[in-house]
Amino acid sequence: MNKLYIGNVSEEASAEDLETIFEQWKIPHSGPFLVKTGYAFVDCPDEKNAMMAIDILSGKVELHGKLLEVEHSVPKRQRSCKLQIRNIPPHLQWEVLDGMLAQYGTVENCEQVNTDTDTAVVNVRYGAKDQARQAMEKLNGFLMEDFALKVSYIPDETAAAATPNLGGGKRGFVPRGPLRSGSPGLGARPKLQSDVPLRILVPTQFVGAIIGKEGATIRNVTKQTHSKIDIHRKENAGAAEKPITVHSTPEGCSNACRTIMEIMQKEALDTKFTEEIPLKILAHNNFVGRLIGKEGRNLKKIEVDTETKITISPLQDLTLYNPERTITVKGSIEACSRAEEEVMKKVRESYENDVAAMNLQSNLIPGLNLNALGLFPGGAPGMGPSMGHNAPPPGAQGGYSSFGSSYFGGEGPFWASVLSASSQPLSGQGQPESETVHLFIPALAVGAIIGKQGQHIKQLSRYAGASIKISADEVRVVDANQVAPPDGMDAKQRMVIIAGPPEAQFKAQGRIFGKLKEENFFGPKEEVKLEAHIKVPSFAAGRVIGKGGKTVNELQNLTSAEVVVPRDQTPDENDQVIVKITGHFYASQLAQRKIQEILSHVRRQQQPKPSPRGDGLARPSRK
């Protein structure tokens, strides 16, 4: 894999020009440049030098006004199922990468390549040639966190070995060298970024000591703990505390945390600072319920095991811009370090479980305007376009949150890579239409959804951009301005009425599913499955069911949700009937979107056709 293909070569370019560029960048080559019209070939002494040439030159160096494209030279007969993907963001997680690659087919093997570059490189083998070709076409140049992916074929040794060497032609590919130590064949799978970054708050007066003179201290910590450490000292001007984000393995995060605590303790002694300096960990609210555990058992066990005192900031401190809770740990440095390990272990487990759920279902949800979901960088976390003109208030912890404020706390790039291929605004050029969904929740959970003095449901309504009401009985309705529903309701379930466009439905319903899980209304290993009702015109019910139930059966197979159109329904005053959907969050969302697609198709068919004159106005017929 040492032969390089150099593309986008100017017609004016010569072998001497290319040789000069390689010499300028100190890239060895072991043979002459073979220059053709528009492209060229050259051999490198080994694979490391070939990779160096690709990383340094491809898409970065110009020759006669044209950016060179450098990649491995692979004969067509060896272009089989294997790809190399370069320029991967250094902190991307394996789960995110897996989800992206799986869109194009079955990934039989994916291993990381050791390089000297800041970005990551992986070799991928797909189950079929057409899958590899599709991945090559879709991913080459695809932007992830401002990194443009570079994808090229790598020689398939199996294909080459199967090709007979007739008449002294080119010999097949011979594997070079043993497996790399980081590959799956020699042990545990390497990670582009391990688990969840650690986020802590430190007193502002200690930030200078943590950074050190000309950054020497923080560089030393980074080097010793093999971590990437971001100190957000410019955030929240004038605040008493500053956030620090540590990217590393769990062990690296813990080592960095301990070292930072030791630096603060030393600085406190030197400056005669006598107050206790607790460890403050930031964690997304979506994970805190599982950290606390039923009746606080998980948190209590950590306190006992580590001999610390742990408190968590109240829900009332959460804002649209700050979805994180502060976990304050008091004790010795040794005790706080042990507590950090246990706390982050629980947080990472919750995150990984949620990522697994996303990988399973999220790539199946069509029809969502992802920018309106507010899951991406570029604005305050959780801020959709309807709120985009409002800047975060001074001191808001927006813009650096590692998780954003989606239901699962997933990172924007994950959603961008997994969902964007199938996501289009539902209503074409106009604003998406409002939808109404009736979601049924356990009656005992109503208080948790409403919150103290109605704060939670008000905040949820603002965050999602939806109208959210909880029915008290068949007639009376409780809205977000009331403190609690009237007493005397003995039903086991209550109906949450959510009105808003698709993105608002996704956010509101997702948060309700998450809240029920956090508040332990479902067991730790039990999926949250809720029943949702949507109303459809009675004349369209048959289209949802399909001939002989074909459509509804296909819906159930595709979505994993139970979809039922009850027979013998009497249409309501608006000539509508109910469709019942039961399943976990992603199954329910997918079923809702698919049914709305069917209804949109029916509505389009009923619209009057435009005038053949093309002026868009109907003209009276002449008699």
Automatic annotation (TrEMBL):
Record's keyword terms, sorted: Cytoplasm, mRNA transport, Nucleus, Repeat, RNA-binding, Translation regulation, Transport
SMART domains given in the database record: KH, RRM
Keyword RNA-binding tagged: yes
Any one of the GO CC terms: cytoplasm
Region (Disordered): 601-623
Pfam families reported for this sequence: KH_1 (PF00013), RRM_1 (PF00076)
A biological-process GO annotation: mRNA transport
Cross-referenced InterPro entries: KH_dom (IPR004087), KH_dom_type_1 (IPR004088), KH_dom_type_1_sf (IPR036612), Nucleotide-bd_a/b_plait_sf (IPR012677), RBD_domain_sf (IPR035979), RRM_dom (IPR000504)
Domain RRM: 2-75, 81-156
GO molecular function: RNA binding
Protein location: Cytoplasm; Nucleus
UniProt record similarity statement: Belongs to the RRM IMP/VICKZ family.
Name assigned to this protein: Insulin-like growth factor 2 mRNA-binding protein 3 isoform X1
Species of provenance: Salmo salar
Top-level taxonomy: Eukaryota, Metazoa, Chordata, Craniata, Vertebrata
